[in-house]
Amino acid sequence: MSTNEEMQLIEAVREFAENNLNDPEYLEKFSPEMWEKIADFGLLGITVDEKYGGLGESYRTAAAVFENLGYSCKNNGFVFVVNNHIWVSQNLIYLYGSEQLKDKYLCDMTAGKRIGAICITEAESGSDALSMVTRAEKTDDGYILNGSKAFISNGPIADIFIVFARTGEGNNKSFTAFVVEKEFPGVKIGADIEKMGLGSCPTSEIVFDNCMIPKENVLGRYNFGSLIMTMALEWERCFEFVPHIGAMRRVMERCIEHVRSRQQFGRPIGDYQAVSHKIADMKVGIEMSRAMLDRIVDLKDNMKTAFIDTSIFKLYVSEAYIKTCRDAMQIFGGYGYTKEYDIERELRDALACSIYSGTNEMQKNTIYNFTTNGESL
Ligand SMILES: Cc1cc2nc3c(=O)[nH]c(=O)nc-3n(C[C@H](O)[C@H](O)[C@H](O)COP(=O)(O)OP(=O)(O)OC[C@H]3O[C@@H](n4cnc5c(N)ncnc54)[C@H](O)[C@@H]3O)c2cc1C
């Protein structure tokens, strides 16, 4: 895609999002109508081959588009739904699935007819994901899955789950990734869990009670689930955080408007360095995030690994995004604390990002281990 075409696509996405994805009625609950609209617009299959109903765009273009989606769609929860569907469900089937799995699921997913989710976390295994106890036993016809997964974003609305389960025998702790349909016998979807933010992205527990999985629904290879999980987290730590750069831009612009118009002591509050420096920090956060993203999309478009880069990116963007929203509330003073100004929702939504995709403490562990093992960036 030429730069000009990319600019046109970005412009179209911004206009579409501004006009169709900002219904105030759906800021705290999922909107099936908005989902239908974004599917019709064609965004769900942005990097997927046209053969499966996608647009076949590069990761660089996808990143530019998703930064702008995050900017123009202030419904952060809805963007999170879209991200979970694309990057850690559909994308995994597209990149690591067999031809059979791709034929079975991708067209429906790019068309938005089936929504995706990823199931890693369990009640007793969060950061220590590899200690999961959900287990799949091999049978003649396929696999029988037992266990339950916690905090599953899109859980109540999803049709397709990428589920990680232990499959190694005896002391072998190997596990496998499976594609599980909501309709498979033994799948039970929990009720929507109320959260502090991201209200328009439903979340639930998913229980697998003697769930029957056909043989062909192994994603990647049997007992190679850790590889798929590593790749999934890499995609998640990059692309789920790209829209946050756009959200930071949106919040920063609101702050700029406010510090220019709000007067105290006879002057715009932006004249006070304690206020203006907060906006300078926001700008630095946005530009540094973009610089890191530039390197990552280059690696991903060349199908290279970006594990440590995405870990650093996730850590940096989430800290910058939370600080931006926290500073925005301070800049807006008492008004920022009211529901009317919608800054408090931005902050509530932002706070989750230091937890999902692996907590920021876990990212620091990864970065430390990588650095002290003598690997160079
Ligand atoms: C909004 C949201 C959406 C989510 N969506 C999904 C989803 O779609 N699918 C899914 O599978 N999961 C999902 N999760 C779950 C998420 O991945 C986990 O919450 C996360 O990995 C942390 O696990 P935990 O909550 O059990 O916390 P714990 O692992 O219990 O951690 C608690 C605290 O201890 C710290 N800690 C733990 N171990 C260490 C260590 N070794 N070193 C330093 N600090 C440590 C953590 O950083 C954290 O601060 C979601 C979570 C949220 C909040």
Automatic annotation (TrEMBL):
Residue ranges of domain Acyl-CoA oxidase/dehydrogenase middle in the record: 117-211
Cofactor requirement: FAD
Domain Acyl-CoA dehydrogenase/oxidase N-terminal per the UniProt entry, residue ranges: 3-113
Domain Acyl-CoA dehydrogenase/oxidase C-terminal positions: 227-368
Gene Ontology biological-process annotations: branched-chain amino acid catabolic process
Family annotation (InterPro entries): Acyl-CoA_DH_CS, Acyl-CoA_Oxase/DH_mid-dom, Acyl-CoA_Oxase/DH_mid-dom_sf, AcylCo_DH-like_C, AcylCo_DH/oxidase_C, AcylCoA_DH/ox_N, AcylCoA_DH/ox_N_sf, AcylCoA_DH/oxidase_NM_dom_sf
GO molecular function annotations of the record: acyl-CoA dehydrogenase activity; flavin adenine dinucleotide binding
Pathway info: Amino-acid degradation; L-valine degradation
Pfam hit, one: Acyl-CoA_dh_M
Organism superkingdom: Bacteria
Keywords assigned: Branched-chain amino acid catabolism, FAD, Flavoprotein, Oxidoreductase
PANTHER family reported in the protein's UniProt record: ACYL-COA DEHYDROGENASE (PTHR43884), ISOVALERYL-COA DEHYDROGENASE, MITOCHONDRIAL-RELATED (PTHR43884:SF12)
Family the entry assigns: Belongs to the acyl-CoA dehydrogenase family.
Stated name of the protein: Alkylation response protein AidB-like acyl-CoA dehydrogenase
Source organism (scientific name): Ruminococcus flavefaciens
